[in-house]
């Protein structure tokens, strides 16, 4: 009897990460949930287990390389890695942006993705059919005012995915990049504006049906479950009301 394939999801404590864990569990993967907030991922693991799925929680800061390397020792073989941990801080122009915010975004979005990918690549290769998903953003593909630090970090993540795909071609590992546009989750915009819920709400004001975390998770689940020879290099997903990062239809 074949072993149940394992999928690791980073940043699984909320939003897209949690939704992706639920989707992959429903697709038959044993999901390993990682995030810094141990209570959140343990609650999600319990929810999935109660529903008859296989799930394990592991508290992890993807920017801590020693901790990531220790985590990776648990895997001899791995089917899927979803690099979802990331996020945005601030919306200041380049002229006045806080370098500390830029550094933190780069560390989480780029170095965190690099850490986990490097540590788990041997197990993904050993599986004979591994898949790496890098969750970037439409910010990885074009700029917008007030987004310099986040845009720079997501561009870095995009280039990481593109370069890795070139470097490991010929190995049994796919590299998939999913770049969502406007997604309304419970935390993303609120975190960006440091808890200012009024500012966060304005991001989505008047927008008819922004994407949900479940929409993006469904996209990831579809890409991961394509036949092994099919690689979805880059999948951009936006709500119908958004034509670009700077062109959004609002009914205001």
How would you describe what is shown here?
This protein is an alpha/beta fold and 252 residues long. The chain has a single domain (4-246), classed as 3-Layer(aba) Sandwich (Rossmann fold), CATH 3.40.50.720. It is built from eight helices and nine strands. The protein has helices spanning 15-26, 38-50, 65-72, 99-126, 148-167, 188-192, 197-204, 213-224; strands spanning 6-9, 30-35, 55-59, 80-83, 130-135, 173-180, 234-237, 242-244, 247-248. A seven-stranded parallel β-sheet has the order 3-2-1-4-5-6-7, sandwiched between helices. The N and C termini lie far apart (57 Å).
Features:
single chain; 252 residues; alpha/beta; Rossmann fold; 7-stranded parallel β-sheet; two-stranded antiparallel sheet; NAD(P)-bd_dom_sf; oxidoreductase; SDR_fam
Radius of gyration: 18 Å
Relative strand content: 15-25%
Identify the CATH homologous superfamily: NAD(P)-binding Rossmann-like Domain
Q: Architecture, according to CATH?
A: 3-Layer(aba) Sandwich
Protein name: SDR family oxidoreductase
Keywords: Oxidoreductase
Family: Belongs to the short-chain dehydrogenases/reductases (SDR) family.
Organism: Streptomyces parvus
């Amino acid at each position: 009897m074949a072993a149940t394939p394992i999928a690791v999801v980073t940043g699984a404590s909320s939003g897209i990460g949690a939704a992706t864990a639920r989707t992959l569990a429903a697709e038959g993967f044993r999901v390993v949930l990682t995030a810094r907030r141990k209570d959140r991922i343990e609650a999600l693991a319990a929810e999935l287990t109660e529903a008859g799925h296989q799930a394990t929680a592991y508290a992890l800061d993807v920017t801590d390389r020693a901790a990531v390397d220790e985590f990776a020792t648990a895997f001899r073989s791995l089917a899927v890695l979803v690099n979802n941990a990331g996020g945005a801080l601030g919306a200041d122009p380049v002229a006045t942006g806080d370098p500390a915010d830029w550094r933190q975004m780069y560390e989480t979005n780029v170095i965190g993705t690099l850490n986990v990918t490097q540590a788990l690549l041997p197990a993904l290769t050993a599986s004979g059919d591994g898949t790496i998903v890098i969750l970037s953003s439409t910010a990885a593909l074009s700029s917008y005012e007030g987004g310099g630090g986040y845009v720079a970090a997501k561009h870095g993540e995009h280039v990481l995915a593109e370069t890795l795909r070139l470097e490991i071609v010929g190995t049994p590992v796919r590299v998939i990049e999913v770049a969502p546009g406007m997604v309304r989750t419970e935390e993303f915009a609120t975190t960006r504006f440091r808890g200012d819920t009024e500012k966060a709400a304005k991001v989505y004001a008047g927008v008819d049906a922004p994407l949900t975390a479940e929409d993006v998770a469904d996209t990831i689940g579809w890409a991961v479950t394509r036949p092994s020879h099919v690689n979805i290099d880059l999948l951009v997903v936006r709500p119908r009301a958004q034509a670009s990062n700077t062109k959004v239809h609002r009914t205001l």
